[in-house]
Structures are given as structure tokens and as C-alpha cells.
Amino acid sequence: MAKVTGKVQAKKIINSDDRKKVSTPIPISDRATKRVIAPYVRIVRKGTKPIEIEEAKQFSIFLQRKPSVLTRDLSSFLSDSVDLPSLLHETADVLKNVTKAAAVTLYMMDSAANEIYVSRKIPTDERHKIRWNIENGTTVATYVANKKEYVLVDDILQDDRFPDGIGYEGISTIKSQVIGETIKSVLCVPVVTPDGQCFAVIELYRQLFDGSFSSDDLKITVIVTGWMGAAVHQNSQRLALKRKQELNDYLLDLTKCYFGETVIMEKMILEIVKFARVTLAAEKATFFVIDRDSEELVADMFEEGEEESKDPNQYRRGIKVRFGKERGIAGVVARTGVTVNVKDAYKDTRFNKEIDQKTGFITRSILCMPIIGVDGILGVVQVVNKRNGGCFTSTDEALTKTFCVYSALALHYTKKRLHNCFLKLVKLQQKPCIHDMDDLMVHSHVTVPPDFNQFSWYISPVDRPNMPHFCFYMFTQIIDDTVINKPQIMQFILSVRKLYRKVPYHNFEHAFSVCHCMYLILTRNLAKFTPIEIKTLLIATLCHDVDHPGFTNNFLQMTKDDLSFLYENSTLENHHYYVTIQILEECKMFVSLTDDDVKLLHEGIKEAILATDTFNHFKYQTKLLQICKQKSFDWNDPLHRSYLKAIMMTSCDLSGQCKPFLVAKRITDNLYVEYYREGDLEKEMGSCPLPLMDREMQYTVAEDQVRFLSIIVIPCVDLLRTILPNTERLYNDA
């Protein structure tokens, strides 16, 4: 009853004298007015932050096909690297001769195990390496490696810091007991890079009667090792940059092949896995593609090791793997999205030892990194066991990150292809039923009701099944027969009807009513609009709410609906335009349209549909009102025409409020059904809905309707009749 009273009050309050005063929009500073317009503007609720959507960067890439990249040999990738131990051995021998030392020992660092080991000129098996923990209170070399500073000892026997002396090859200098040769003076210097990384220790020593090392010996040794540290660091940086550049070039070539459709996804993944293993000097590489559709954490695993690389047909590909919830490095990374670099796998509680026990493979070090795309974690790249007994460095992490970027791009492109498959399925479903097409073709020459050309007319329940027939009638009445394809127009109308959802208000009946209003405006002003504009406005009104879910833009943003992430503003309106274009691509309604005409048509449809966003309406209304006040409206000005078409779209969209009372009441009732449904859902989510959408606030409906008519509807149709006087009936019926 409140809604009836509201409509009556609106009709009484807004009499003919008052209407002359509403050419200027009513101020919206009072609370009642804000309550009415709240659903149509962007609202930031208390305690929430606006959702920020980064503006997508548009770019175009011209790709060339290079299939040869798939067969090129990657084994030479690291050929430019330096044999560091050999270089250090040569340096150590030079220092031995210059300082006249009796012998020299080279120790290499194993940062993963926190140990140093004796490096021999002829490499030995891993099991025969002599190792010491890096700590104080044992040998000279471990002390130097720990402190990263040189030590010059005149008499190793008398220095309590080194109870184990030099500790090499059974030569012990524990206090006064000497076994083997007698060592006295020791000069031990670390080889440190400028960033503070110690990667080797050079130890020189003299026998009992050779005398001690001098300060000149120390100076020469420190200078040479310092130069070595700087040179090795610079070379490693150069090699890292070179490797990264080659990596980018390779992956870009591979991506070009993939995007050029010369490589299938599985082949590309296998190439990336192989290249990752070679580039990072790992024994094994694994690529996990996450399957998010499964309730469990499932991945398609692609694995390549040194044994498999000898036979390209021995890849382990497409194996389904289920990640455990408690163990497994890959599972942890897949769930958390955080990179994990494990230096000693067996000391890490997250590592699952059962796999090694089953396969006999010994895992030492692991680098595992997520592949992150716009939709979250898409996959995981894992490399195992750095060759030569080391661990994966920060440089390896940077290279792996590059792999992940290209992999994310490839996986995202695969999803796009999958999306295209689904889009084809949707397009198949949007095609109208053949029986509906036959019926429309047979009854295309429909007889319209007598008052069809009046703004007050509204479709009756009996005539609702004939809405497609009436749409066809309107299209063919004001569009030249020589430029239309009638069967395609029929398919277009029926496809649009099929894609309107069965919601109380934003349904095909509403779309038909809006299109009918636009038809009446155009028939009265055909000479003022171009053929392209007529086509644009008819299509835009019929499709302006296609696939509308029955919720507002504010609700979609608050609930973080997928659509809200696609468009920063006018979420639903942009979606309606996108769906419209998809339908138009399938229905070639107009013949002999040039590419420029099609471009103008699409641009006009987008502009017209976006104008139905009430948030945009106030902007256009203000600008056009200013033009009308100055009596400067120019039909030859494209901007003025654009403002007018925007007002025409809004007037047609709101024309339900200009119908006879009972019709307008039913339309309003249907709108409130949608509003209250949205408000109920907000309450279920723990939010406080807007008053207009709160069914407990129904007592304000009458006042809200008066405000809505006064603030939005009447000023809009009043502005329309100012420029198009033959639409005054629409204004009088409001």
C-alpha cells in the first residue's frame, strides 16, 4: 500500500506548476535524496576500502616463428663459465713461489653444509673430500673462513686459537707433538668478493727452519687474493647477466613459437623443464601445473633429469601428483606462494624423505618457486641438487623467477585458449531455438496494437509472447530495407531475448519497453539522426541490460564478483556492451557496411549503453543543461549530439515511470523485489544494506518514489523535451 501512496503523492506533488521549476536539478544535499540516489552511484561502505583495479596495460607483440629453437643444442649454454678451482690453484702456486712457502693448500667453501673442503688439482670423488666445519677453535683455515679475515702466525705451535693447527693430511701440530713435517709459520688468507662472500681460503706455510712470513709476504698475498675476489665477483656478475640475457632470448623465442601455434603446450613445458635444469646446473627439474578444479591439491607433473636428457623420449610428463597437506616442498610452495630455497633437504622438516627412499635418489638441495599469474598460483617450478655439491644461489633464484614469468604467460595464454573454447560453447547456446526462428519468420508481418505509437502504451500479458515480433517490426520500420538482412535481424532479436536472465525487473520485457520508447522518439525525429545513429540507438536500447544478474554495481564490487575486476567503472554497463558485441559478431544484420561504419556502430553502442549508468547520467545532464540554458545547442556539434543521445538513453531506461499508474506500480514493485533480494544477501553477509534495499524500510517507499521522480526522472525527460519538443507527452505522463 505504501508504494501506491508513493506514486499518488508523486503525481499530486509534481503538478504542472512545479514542473516548470524542475529544469534545474534539485539539490542532493538532504538525506532523503541521498537515500534515493545511493544505489546508482559508487558507494564506499564504512569500514571498507574501495576496490582498486589496476588499469590493464594494452600492448601488441609482433611475433615471428622460429621452430628451430626447439631443436637447438642447449648443452653449450654454460660453456663460457670459468673453472674457478683451476684458476685459484694457479694463483695459489704463484703465491707459494713468490712468498717462498714450503707448501700451499686451497680450501673451497660449501656454504650449504657450512663446511670447507680441500680442493685438489685433480678432482676427487665426493666421498674422498677432506672437510671441516666452519667454526673457531679448530684449524687456521676454518677460523679464517668463519671470520673472513687473514691470519699470520709466526709459530703455530704457540697459538692457542688453533689447537688442530693446519689439520691437513695427518700433519698435526697439537702443542709440542709434531707428526710428519714440522710446520711453524702459517699465512692464511680468505678470498672474499666485494659483497662479503667468502668462496675460498688459501693457506701458505713454512717449515721450522725456513723462518717466518714477512709483512711484504702478507701484503702481496692480501693484494692478490683481494684482486682475485673482485675479478671473480665481476666475472660472475657478467656471466649471470649473460645467462639471464640468453635465458630471456631463448624463452622469448620459445614463447613466440607457442603463440605462433607451432608448439603445443606440453612440448613447451618440457622444453622449459629441460632448459631450467641445464641453466641452473641442476640434476633434476620438475614443472607442476596446478589443477584448481580439484578439491585436492593436484598437479600435472613434468620432470626431466640427467638420465632422461640422454633420451628425449624418457620425460616423465603429465603425471598426476597429489600434494600432501603436511609434507613436501612443492606442496608448501603451491599452497603459500612463497619461494623455498633449501640448502640441506634432510635437515628441513618440510622435505618428504619417502620419495628418495622409494626411488634411491638422494636429494641434497632444492629450489622451488611458484608460478603466479593474475588468477593466483598457476604452477610450481622445482630444481633439485646443484651440481658440484653446491646449493642454489640468489642468482639462481633470479633466473628461476624469469622462468616463472614466461611460464605464467604461457599458462595464462593456455587459459585464454580454454576460455575461447568455452566462448564458442556459449555462442552455440546463444543461438535461438529453430522453432522460435520459424515462428518469427512465419509471423513477421505482425499487426501492432492501435496505440502502439503512443508513449503511454505498454506490452500486455497477452502480447508478451509477441515481443520479438514487435521488435522486428520496429527495426524494419525505421531502417532501410535495402541495408538489412531480415533473417539475421530475427536471429539477433531472439538471441538477445535468450541472454536476458529471468530476473524480476532487468529482463527482456524491460529491454523491449526501453527499445519501444526509443523507437517512438526516433520515428518522431528521423530527419535529425543519421542511419548509423538510428541503428546504434535501437540496438543499444534492446541490449542495454542484457545478461543483467539483478544486482547493482555496488553489490558486485562489494562481493568482489568476477565482473568487478574486469572493469574499473560502469561494471555492468561494460559487460552489457561486451555481450552485445558477441551477439553482433554472430548476427550480420546489416549489409554493405564498411569497416568504418562498423567501427562507428560499435563505438556508438558502447557510448549509448554506458550512458545508462546513472552515475554517468548526472554528468551528461549537467553539461547538456548548461548548453540549453545558453541556448547554444548545435545539431552539427558531435559533442552536443552525444550528450543528447545519452539523455535519450536514460529517458527511455526510466520511461516505465511515465506509464499509466498501475503499469508504473507493477514495474516499481519488480524493481524493489530485486533491491530487497540484494539487501537480504547483504544482511546474510553481515553488512548493513542501503535503506532503499532494506525491506524493513518499506514505509519510506512513498517518499523515495517522490524523490526519485523529482530528482532523476522528471529533470531528464524535461531536458529531452527542451531539445525534442515532440517528446513532451513523455514528460506530461511522468
Automatic annotation (TrEMBL):
<feature type="binding site">
    <location>
        <begin position="506"/>
        <end position="510"/>
    </location>
    <ligand>
        <name>AMP</name>
    </ligand>
</feature>
<keyword id="KW-0378">Hydrolase</keyword>
<feature type="binding site">
    <location>
        <position position="545"/>
    </location>
    <ligand>
        <name>Zn(2+) 1</name>
    </ligand>
</feature>
<feature type="domain" description="PDEase">
    <location>
        <begin position="426"/>
        <end position="734"/>
    </location>
</feature>
<dbReference type="Pfam" id="PF01590">
    <property type="entry name" value="GAF"/>
</dbReference>
<feature type="binding site">
    <location>
        <position position="544"/>
    </location>
    <ligand>
        <name>Zn(2+) 1</name>
    </ligand>
</feature>
<dbReference type="GO" id="GO:0046872">
    <property type="term" value="F:metal ion binding"/>
</dbReference>
<dbReference type="InterPro" id="IPR023174">
    <property type="entry name" value="PDEase_CS"/>
</dbReference>
<feature type="binding site">
    <location>
        <position position="705"/>
    </location>
    <ligand>
        <name>AMP</name>
    </ligand>
</feature>
<feature type="binding site">
    <location>
        <position position="510"/>
    </location>
    <ligand>
        <name>Zn(2+) 1</name>
    </ligand>
</feature>
<feature type="binding site">
    <location>
        <position position="545"/>
    </location>
    <ligand>
        <name>Zn(2+) 2</name>
    </ligand>
</feature>
<dbReference type="InterPro" id="IPR023088">
    <property type="entry name" value="PDEase"/>
</dbReference>
<feature type="binding site">
    <location>
        <position position="653"/>
    </location>
    <ligand>
        <name>AMP</name>
    </ligand>
</feature>
<keyword id="KW-0140">cGMP</keyword>
<dbReference type="InterPro" id="IPR036971">
    <property type="entry name" value="PDEase_catalytic_dom_sf"/>
</dbReference>
<dbReference type="InterPro" id="IPR029016">
    <property type="entry name" value="GAF-like_dom_sf"/>
</dbReference>
<feature type="binding site">
    <location>
        <position position="653"/>
    </location>
    <ligand>
        <name>Zn(2+) 1</name>
    </ligand>
</feature>
<feature type="binding site">
    <location>
        <position position="545"/>
    </location>
    <ligand>
        <name>AMP</name>
    </ligand>
</feature>
<dbReference type="InterPro" id="IPR002073">
    <property type="entry name" value="PDEase_catalytic_dom"/>
</dbReference>
<dbReference type="InterPro" id="IPR003607">
    <property type="entry name" value="HD/PDEase_dom"/>
</dbReference>
<comment type="similarity">
    <text>Belongs to the cyclic nucleotide phosphodiesterase family.</text>
</comment>
<dbReference type="Pfam" id="PF00233">
    <property type="entry name" value="PDEase_I"/>
</dbReference>
<keyword id="KW-0479">Metal-binding</keyword>
<dbReference type="InterPro" id="IPR003018">
    <property type="entry name" value="GAF"/>
</dbReference>
<protein>
    <recommendedName>
        <fullName>Phosphodiesterase</fullName>
        <ecNumber>3.1.4.-</ecNumber>
    </recommendedName>
</protein>
<dbReference type="GO" id="GO:0007165">
    <property type="term" value="P:signal transduction"/>
</dbReference>
<feature type="active site" description="Proton donor">
    <location>
        <position position="506"/>
    </location>
</feature>
<dbReference type="GO" id="GO:0004114">
    <property type="term" value="F:3',5'-cyclic-nucleotide phosphodiesterase activity"/>
</dbReference>
